Amino acid sequence: MTMATVNAANETAEKTDLEPLRRNVPFLLLWSGSAVSALGTSVSTFAYPLLVLSLTGSPLRAGLVAFLATLPSIILQLPAGALVDRLNRRSLMLVCDLGRAAVLGSIAATVLSGHFWFAHVAAAALVEGALSVPHRLCSQAAVRNVVPDRHLHTAYAQNETRDRAALMLGAPLGGTLFAVSRWMPFLLDAASYLVSAISLLFIRVPFRVDETAPQPEGVRESMAHLAQGVRWINRQPFIRTAVLLVGASNLLFQALSLVVIAKLTAAEVSAADIGYVMAAAGVGGTLGALAAPRLLRHMPLRVLVPAANWAWALLIPLVAICDQLVVLGLLLALIVFVGPLWNIGVDVHRLALTPDELQGRVSAAAALIESGTIPLGALGGGLLADALTGRQAVLALAAGMALTALVATLSPAVRRHVETP
Questions:
Q1: So what's the pLDDT on residue 176?
Q2: Which of 135, 288, 304, 332 could be cross-linked to 340 through a Cys-Cys bond (beta carbons 3.0 to 4.6 Å apart)?
Q3: In angstroms, rounded to a whole number, what is the distance separating the alpha carbons of residues 345 and 299?
Q4: Is the predicted pLDDT of residue 393 greater than 50, yes or no?
Q5: Residue 31 in 3-state DSSP?
Q6: Is 314 a residue whose pLDDT tops 60?
């Protein structure tokens, strides 16, 4: 990075530090482009299994596509993190957006022309998932460089709100578009990635502090470079504990989602009503993200971490004994409401402490631990739903959450945590 670029970046940082977040043009461009692409991704994620099921009638093949779409988020996290810290982050995001637009456009084109090849759809899901991993890590790391520290909680709250709203709206929009024509959800997603790429072209603020840092050479040095994110987390007792607790809770929540759906299906609740119940959870998450900045001002992390886990441990058993759909939806909304408080508070703390040159690798290491348990949760939820009644399965998960809450309460790293400015 040249001296002129550094000076320009410093001038931009000083200017944005004095402006409210709603006038921070780089952040608004980054947020709006990501919002459109997140909605498109949610739409196509819902449409993938519909397309495969409608044209093959095979649930196994639909499950395989879903598996391939999520597989990169596990196996590519650490390599993608190293890539994010090695390359120009904005350019890497552009490549990912254009690549995903091409892949989704190819599905729309083949379905529109009356053709379907399962291998093509499976490969497209895998490639889209692979390109989404570095894009997400770049976007997360970029926020810290386009937003002053005093606005980080608000910025990440808006990101969380964006993602929760996209998940909430994606399923009904995807289903509506698919009902009109099978290719429309995929064309919308392709267009959303192009919108994201265009928004990036107008952002002039660098997404890294120093883009001229020396890079590792050779296999051994590259492997050490890759592991630096894991080692950094391991040296931070509070962050290490928080990441492990998130992994445990994600496992339990993934299992809970499947168990609730199985419980409602066994009670002969219609698919539409099940969708409304799960949508209530999305509403709770959106409201939690909106409320997070104000609530986090009055809640230290050493209080938030055990409090969130105990809230979940107390609410989940109520799901086991609830048979009314409206009340069940409200319970799920309350459970999910707590999630954004945890995500925003802990993530902002981690991102604020992480050196900029390690942002990608640390975020990747954290995501690997936090999200790597989700497939296990899906498998465990299926086993529980198969072996136990719905009520018994939910109570078993509640016991697991109570154990997690106890660990959070007794952890010295959590109890002794001191807030950083």
A1: 79
A2: 288
A3: 9
A4: yes
A5: helix
A6: yes
The token pair at 323 is: 């048979």
- Whole-number Å distance between alpha carbons of 58 and 50: 10
Q: What is the per-residue pLDDT for 275?
A: 64
How far apart are the C-alpha atoms of 263 and 240, rounded to whole Å?
Answer: 35
Fold matches, 3-215 and 227-415: yes
> How many angstroms separate the CA atoms of 210 and 35, rounded?
27
How far are the Cα atoms of 60, 79, 178 from residue 56, in angstroms, in the given order?
A: 10, 35, 16
**pLDDT for 5 beyond 80:** no
Nearest to 339 by CA among 166, 164, 171: 164
Q: How far is CA 213 from the centre of its chain?
A: 29
Q: What percent of the chain has pLDDT over 70?
A: 87
pLDDT tens-place string over residues 117-174: 889 999 999 999 899 988 888 888 888 778 887 777 788 778 778 887 787 777 678 7
- Sequence spans of domains, the chain: 3-215, 227-415
Between CA 283 and CA 405 the distance in angstroms is: 24
What span, in angstroms and rounded, lies between the C-alpha atoms of 354 and 371?
A: 20
User: Of 322, 353, 196, whose CA–CA distance to 260 is shortest?
Assistant: 322
Quick check: helix, strand or coil at residue 299? coil
User: Does the structure show a pLDDT above 80 at 285?
Assistant: yes
Q: Are 361 and 81 in contact (CB under 8 A)?
A: yes
Q: Of how many residues is the chain composed?
A: 421
Residues 6 or more apart whose CB falls under 8 angstroms from that of 417 comprise 238, 300, 301, 302
What is the rounded distance in angstroms from the CA atom of residue 255 to the CA atom of residue 251? Answer: 6
C-alpha–C-alpha distance, residues 119 and 108, integer Å: 15
The domain made up of 3-215 has a fold known as Growth Hormone; Chain: A; (1.20.1250)
Distance CA 35, CA 344 (A): 17
Q: Which tops the pLDDT comparison, 43 or 405? A: 405
Is a pLDDT exceeding 90 seen at residue 408?
yes
Other CB atoms within a 10 A radius of the CB of residue 204 amount to 12
Is domain 227-415 annotated with CATH 1.20.1250.20? yes
Helices 301-321 and 325-353, packing angle to 10 deg: 160
